[in-house]
Design a protein that fits this description.
Radius of gyration: 17 Å
Order of helices and strands: EEHHHHH
Number of domains: 1
Helix content: 40-55%
Strand content: 5-15%
Distance between the termini: 68 Å
Oligomer: single chain
């Protein structure tokens, strides 16, 4: 049996329930059978994308901004700016993506509580 595949490249985010949330709809019929290969975008990959000759799409800019914000690398304000949004629209994008609006490092919080 011959298997013919069509490759579609897109980006997305893995949420806290480890579900893949794509940045855009896939151009295919409902209930199509797919094979998924996930390439995790680490800090090096994101930096490479930023430095490549191909500019990032708005969806890629938003995904990168959310990842950097969620990892505590940049502030909400800087993330919004990177995504090309105002802060309000960035917060709405976080909500749409079911991402935490406020990033809390629980180890830092425990230390702060212990200090009184």
């Amino acid at each position: 049996m011959e298997f013919i595949a069509k490759a579609i490249e897109t980006t997305g985010i893995v949420d806290r329930q480890r579900r893949l949330l794509l940045d855009e709809s896939l151009p295919m019929a409902d209930k199509s059978r797919v094979r998924v290969i996930v390439l995790e975008a680490d800090e090096h990959t994101i930096r490479f994308s930023q430095e490549s000759s191909k500019p990032l799409s708005p969806a890629e800019r938003l995904t990168t901004a959310i990842l950097k914000y969620q990892h505590g690398e940049i502030s909400q304000e800087k993330a919004a700016e990177f995504a090309g949004l105002n802060r309000r629209d960035f917060l709405l994008a976080l909500a749409r993506e079911k991402r935490d609006v406020f990033v809390v490092d629980f180890d830092d919080l425990k230390e702060e509580i212990a200090r009184g």
